[in-house]
């Protein structure tokens, strides 16, 4: 945390916002509107939380111009995007600790390991043969990098990350604790005496500025490549199967599963717990709602939901029609029963 906190004046300067109220209010923390106190900064992004603003005790509030006159704390900073402004303020309040640029004595380095510039290598990290790292890479405790892997500049692997053989990471890739990149995929050939594993000998390539969440797994290709495009952000507990290709700037949320050989275009959003069957194509800019089951291709720009996933507006219309029908179910059942009661016994 910043030693002395930030004044409202400093916050406005950091985010390029318009300051309303006292410029000397000092905050040292951040909290949601209902929980914030006089020493906290908070934010308001949507009208849904205007009642919480009115009751909030926050010292400084970041908000959009549409809410500048809403009741609430008098010291506020008007910005175009309160969430983006909050990210800037949080970085100033909680600056990251500088890394220790050294190799821990318990780390093990295989033959022909090479890196440029500085390296931070944590306790019990293991690098295989012929591993190449770019400049200023930070590798946590118990990180494992298999033979022949390549990392670009400014990569960060948190504790317990595993990088498989031959995996290629671009520049500024961040991988959180426990993630596995370049694991063998799930592939078998049926035989009379059971199932024979299909060897996975393909590649796994991750583009620049990709972030991969904790305990996510990305399989290497079977005989082709698994690819994650530049700028894509992947949440925790996601499974990316063999030969999946994900485009640039995608956002994939927690517990999503992408089956083998599915192709995802650029700028796609896949919400939590969605599942995509194998060998599908999801077009550029598509949106897949939470818990959707996608079993067919999704056209570019479409928004789909439900199982099987289909046009989101159609799903909403179907749900609304069902809600209107539900109150009449008892009446329909009574009419059917009355009709049956009038039939002769042998005709029922």
Describe this structure in words.
With 348 residues, this protein is α/β, with parallel strands linked by helices. It has three domains: 6-93, MurE/MurF, N-terminal domain (Udp-n-acetylmuramoylalanyl-d-glutamate--2,6- Diaminopimelate Ligase, Chain: A, domain 1); 108-311, Hexapeptide repeat proteins (UDP N-Acetylglucosamine Acyltransferase, domain 1, 3 Solenoid); 320-347. Helix content is 16%, strand content 28%. The protein has five helices and 39 strands. It has an eleven-stranded mixed beta sheet. The protein has a ten-stranded parallel beta sheet with strand order 8-11-14-17-20-25-28-31-34-37, with no helix packed on it. Helix 2 (50-55) links the parallel strand 5 (40-44) and strand 6 (60-63). The longest helix has 14 residues, at 312-325. The radius of gyration is 27 Å and the shape is flat. The N and C termini lie far apart (77 Å).
What portion of residues is helical? 10-25%
Count of DSSP helices? 5
Structural class: alpha/beta
Q: What strand line-up does the widest sheet have?
A: 10-13-16-19-24-27-30-33-36-38-39
Strand content: 25-35%
Mean pLDDT: 94
- The tally of domains stands at 3
| CATH architectural designation of the largest domain | 3 Solenoid
Major sheet summary line: 11 strands, mixed
CATH superfamily of the largest domain: Hexapeptide repeat proteins
The geometry reads as flat
Low-confidence sequence ranges: none
CATH fold-type name of the largest domain: UDP N-Acetylglucosamine Acyltransferase, domain 1
Radius of gyration, rounded? Answer: 27 Å
N-to-C CA distance: 77 Å
CATH C-level category of the largest domain = Mainly Beta
Care to count the β-strands?
39
């Amino acid at each position: 945390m910043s030693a002395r906190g930030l004044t409202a004046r400093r916050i406005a300067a950091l985010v390029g916002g318009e300051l309303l109220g006292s410029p000397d209010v000092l905050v040292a923390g951040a909290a949601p509107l209902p929980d914030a106190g006089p020493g906290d900064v908070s934010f308001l992004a949507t009208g849904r939380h205007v009642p919480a603003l009115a009751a909030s005790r926050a010292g400084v509030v970041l908000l959009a111009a549409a809410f500048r006159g809403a009741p609430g704390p008098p010291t506020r900073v008007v910005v175009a995007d309160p969430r983006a402004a909050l990210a800037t303020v949080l970085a100033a309040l909680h600056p990251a600790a500088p890394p220790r640029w050294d190799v821990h004595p318990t780390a093990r380095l295989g033959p022909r390991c090479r890196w440029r510039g500085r390296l931070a290598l944590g306790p019990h990290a293991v690098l295989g043969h012929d591993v190449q790292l770019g400049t200023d890479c930070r590798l946590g405790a118990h990180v494992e990098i298999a033979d022949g892997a390549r990392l670009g500049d400014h990569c960060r692997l948190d504790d317990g990350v595993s990088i498989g053989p031959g995996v290629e990471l671009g520049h500024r890739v961040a991988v959180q604790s426990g993630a596995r990149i370049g694991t063998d995929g799930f592939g078998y050939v049926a035989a009379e005496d059971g199932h024979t594993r299909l060897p996975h000998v393909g590649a796994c390539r991750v583009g620049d500025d990709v972030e991969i969440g904790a305990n996510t797994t990305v399989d290497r290709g079977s005989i082709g490549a698994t690819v994650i495009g530049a700028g894509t952000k992947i949440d925790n507990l996601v499974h990316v199967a063999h030969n999946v290709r994900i485009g640039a700037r995608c956002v994939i949320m927690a517990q999503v599963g992408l089956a083998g050989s599915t192709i995802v275009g650029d700028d796609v959003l896949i919400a939590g717990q969605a599942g995509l069957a194998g060998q599908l194509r999801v077009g550029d800019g598509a949106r897949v709602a939470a818990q959707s089951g996608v079993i067919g291709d999704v056209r570019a720009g479409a928004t789909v939901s439900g199982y099987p996933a289909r046009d989101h507006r159609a799903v909403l219309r179907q749900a609304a029609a069902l809600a209107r029908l539900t109150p009449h179910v008892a009446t329909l059942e009574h009419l059917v029963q009355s009709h049956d009661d009038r039939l002769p016994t042998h005709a029922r």
